User: Which sequence fits this backbone?
């Protein structure tokens, strides 16, 4: 049984992505007791799946490493991975939270040597790469995963693969008898940092994401740049592996659309401008990029980045929401059909690859506790929420920069709650 | 009458065609909601044949291009397929706005005179009103002769084998030529239409009075 000592002066952070990590670390570094829960087997969330950040075009691995070191160094912070909140009861300053810890089947003896993965034969869709690649039934989710510990996919339990993995481990790290555990935590304040998920691109029927191989989503495109990713870092199109030199980006794919997501997802304009630089860096003079947009929302300091990309004659900006995508049967090229707003010209443009700049929606449909959510499903900052605060994309569609700001603010609000509790007890 | 109405409208809404559309055209209040994304124009199956696609019509309304919009044949091209309404990210009832504009243009006498959709719509209406039921035989024939007698004869001769085939398979009743079938309570039907016309006229009168 996992021993957890928590009091009503403890802050619980739900979600270990960039927002949750930040909120947890800020509170812990301010001297508060913090418990951080993460559903995945590792922390870092969707930021781990990004190749570069905008606008500086630096690698997220750098910031993630700093946060991992802060986390390891802080005795006030305890992390549980593969943990999910089932139920929350109580009020501000006195919450009781029921949590399920799912078994990893690998204990702390693991050295991440990888012998178990070599021994296992079964392969499954790799979640880290949105199913564009396979991974073994025993796996390290990604190269920089923290905790640096392998995971056994429960689907190989009871098969020969599970026994092979166990036999291959020299450190007695594989425990196939691990069971799910239920723990109950007493905490004073809760920070929801459950993040976002990409909108289901197949729902945008006229874009044919589910019918046309060379129509992909922006998160999938991001994975292509990873040297360990599904294409080994090459920008190629899925249908025939040809270099994707002529790439189209469709903005507001699902966002700002009453048929899909009501809100502007805020990140997609900058994400496409960033991904445009990937195409330009990869193919140099041969690169051709077309960005189909309603309006470009690159606010304040991002404006410089937008101007820089816009200044490149290889990048075309077409003011038009694409009406539909057809497929050229002979070449596999997606053909974009529509009418532009600057002159009302009808177009039918073929491209090698089409990237849908997909919108953000909250990753959680229903919270296990009553909180005030807005019509888009994000948590409102409302006094009725008591000692429960949202951080990052649980509160709104935000980029990393603004998520971190939101997380710091949430940490401060949670600290105020536990400080009040502490004073009342003196 | 319609020409006078047109002059009155020009006076009232000088340089403010958007306001006129919002007040006078059915569903016209939606026009300002258009964000010019163009998905309606790209989605229209008849789009390539329009002089001005919906997105452009909306922009022309805002730009005050009154004559060009109301005398355009574009909105008469709408086949009510509803593709635009389904895809519009702001849920504008584009099909209905197009019909509203066409109706308003006709009321003011500005619709293009030889617009075939408009002519057919009038034929259909006149045909329907008589008996409360559409007389397909008469409607078909009046359609043939829509563009003059000689062309009508030519079309009728061309279509004769189809007509004979329909007679043979009892798809067309030649007796429809005389009288034709009708609704049970024809008097009531006509009274209903008259009442509807009165309501519509009162509505317009009220609008004018408020102006």
Assistant:
């Amino acid at each position: 049984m996992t021993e957890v000592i928590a009091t009503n002066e403890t802050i619980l952070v739900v979600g270990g992505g960039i927002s949750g990590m930040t909120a947890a670390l800020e509170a812990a570094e301010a001297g508060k007791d913090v418990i951080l829960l993460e559903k995945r087997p590792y922390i870092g969330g969707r930021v781990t799946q990004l190749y570069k950040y905008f606008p500086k075009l630096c690698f997220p691995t750098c910031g993630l490493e700093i946060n991992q070191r802060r986390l390891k160094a802080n005795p006030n912070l305890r992390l549980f991975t593969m943990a999910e909140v089932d139920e929350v009861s109580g009020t501000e300053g006195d919450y009781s939270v029921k949590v399920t810890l799912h078994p990893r089947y690998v204990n702390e003896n693991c050295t991440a040597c990888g012998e178990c993965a070599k021994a296992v034969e079964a392969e499954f869709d790799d979640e880290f790469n949105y199913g564009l690649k396979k991974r073994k039934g025993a796996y390290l989710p990604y190269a920089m995963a923290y905790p640096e510990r392998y995971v056994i996919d429960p689907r190989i339990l009871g098969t020969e693969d599970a026994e092979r993995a166990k036999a291959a481990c020299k450190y007695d790290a594989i425990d196939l008898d691990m069971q799910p555990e239920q723990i109950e935590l007493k905490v004073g304040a809760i920070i929801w940092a459950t993040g976002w998920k990409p909108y289901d691109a197949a729902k945008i029927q006229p874009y044919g994401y589910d019918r046309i191989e060379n129509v992909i989503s922006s998160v999938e495109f991001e994975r292509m740049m990873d040297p360990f990713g599904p294409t080994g870092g090459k920008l190629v199109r899925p249908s025939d592996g040809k270099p994707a030199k002529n790439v189209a980006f469709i903005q507001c794919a699902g966002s700002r659309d009453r048929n899909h997501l009501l809100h502007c997802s805020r990140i997609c304009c900058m994400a496409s401008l960033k991904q445009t630089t990937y195409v330009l860096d990869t193919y140099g003079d041969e690169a051709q990029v077309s960005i189909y947009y309603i309006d470009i929302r690159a606010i304040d300091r991002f404006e410089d980045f937008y101007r820089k990309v816009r200044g490149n004659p290889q990048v075309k900006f077409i003011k038009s929401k694409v009406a539909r995508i057809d497929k050229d049967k002979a070449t596999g090229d997606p053909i974009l059909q529509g009418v532009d707003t600057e002159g009302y010209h009808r177009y039918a443009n073929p491209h090698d690859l089409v990237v849908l700049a997909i919108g953000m929606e909250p990753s959680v449909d229903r919270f296990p506790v009553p909180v005030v959510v807005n019509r888009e499903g994000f948590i409102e900052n409302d006094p009725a929420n008591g000692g429960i605060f949202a951080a990052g994309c649980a509160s709104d569609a935000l980029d990393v920069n603004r998520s971190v700001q939101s997380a710091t603010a949430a940490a401060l609000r949670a600290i105020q709650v536990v400080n009040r509790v502490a004073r009342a007890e003196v | 009458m319609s020409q006078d109405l047109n002059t009155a409208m020009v006076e009232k809404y000088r340089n403010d065609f958007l306001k006129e559309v919002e007040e006078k055209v059915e569903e016209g209040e939606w026009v300002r909601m258009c964000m010019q994304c163009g998905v309606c124009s790209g989605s229209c199956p008849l789009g390539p044949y329009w002089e001005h696609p919906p997105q452009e019509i909306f922009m022309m309304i805002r730009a005050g291009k009154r004559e060009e919009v109301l005398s355009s044949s574009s909105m008469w091209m709408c086949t009510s397929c509803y593709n635009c309404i389904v895809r519009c990210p702001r849920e504008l009832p584009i099909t209905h706005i197009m019909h509203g504009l066409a109706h308003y243009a006709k009321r003011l006498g500005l619709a293009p005179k030889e617009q075939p959709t408009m002519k057919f719509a009038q034929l259909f209406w006149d045909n329907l009103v008589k008996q409360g039921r559409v007389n397909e035989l008469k409607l078909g024939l009046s359609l043939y002769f829509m563009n003059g007698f000689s062309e009508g004869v030519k079309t009728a001769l061309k279509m004769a084998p189809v007509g004979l085939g329909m007679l043979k398979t009892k798809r067309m009743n030649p007796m429809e030529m005389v009288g034709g079938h009708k609704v049970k309570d024809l008097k009531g039907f006509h009274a209903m239409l008259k009442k509807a016309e009165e309501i519509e006229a009162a509505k317009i009168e009220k609008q004018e009075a408020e102006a």
